[in-house]
Amino acid sequence: MIKGAVFDMDGLMFDTEKLVYQAWQRVMDSNGYDYDFEIYKKTVGRRTAETRKFYEELYGGEFDYQRLRNEANVFFRDDIETNGVPLKKGLVNILEYLKTHNIKIALATSTSSATAMGLLEKANVKQYFDRFVCGNMVKNGKPHPEVFLTAAKELCLKPESCIALEDSINGIKSAYNAGMKPLMVPDLLEPTEEIKPMLFALCKDLDEAIEYFKQ
């Protein structure tokens, strides 16, 4: 019996990955770095420390990750302030369904607490969640299972009684390794042959995902 739902955030709940990419592209272009969407996709689902390491290995130790990240964050926040948080199709519908059917809801994101809480509040969906586990609250990032194991513990549920909703490859691996039922709603990344056997379900949007909580 499914008793819990554990949500990733960027790319799954909010259509923010494209905004982050656009911000990084502007910053990298203005600083003279060779950068494109394929490079950005390799950072999806990673925590800050892991992304920093990836860029430093790619561009060299002199790469000023923190400065460039700060610049990209300014562009990202300006976009959100101007246009609001872009919600993924079906987000409010699935949260309403879970709440009315007494299924516990947790967040399990690689994003920091400050950024995640700000986006949840601005999107007016924070009130649906029972617990929050963010990137700065765990030692290991996805694909390590720690974030999902912590979310299950916070909900006082066994991992196997939870569906984990994810859009990224690392997120699916993390949920699978935690013993949850990984449900993928692809955003920038389609499921690979490696992760297809790990999937509990593959859905085109969050409206379709509701059906798997009715079983």
What does this structure look like?
The chain has 9 helices and 6 strands; from the N terminus they run βαααααβαβαβαββα. Helix 1 (17-30) packs across helix 4. It is globular, with a radius of gyration of 17 Å. The chain folds into 2 domains: 4-15 and 86-213, HAD superfamily/HAD-like (Rossmann fold, 3-Layer(aba) Sandwich); 17-83. It has 215 residues and is of the alpha/beta class. The longest helix is centred in the middle third of the chain and has 19 residues, at 65-83. Helix 8 (169-178) links the parallel strand 4 (162-166) and strand 5. The protein has a 6-stranded parallel sheet with strand order 3-2-1-4-5-6, with helices on both faces. It has helices at residues 17-30, 37-41, 48-59, 65-83, 91-100, 113-122, 146-155, 169-178, 206-209, and strands at 4-7, 104-108, 131-133, 162-166, 181-184, 201-202.
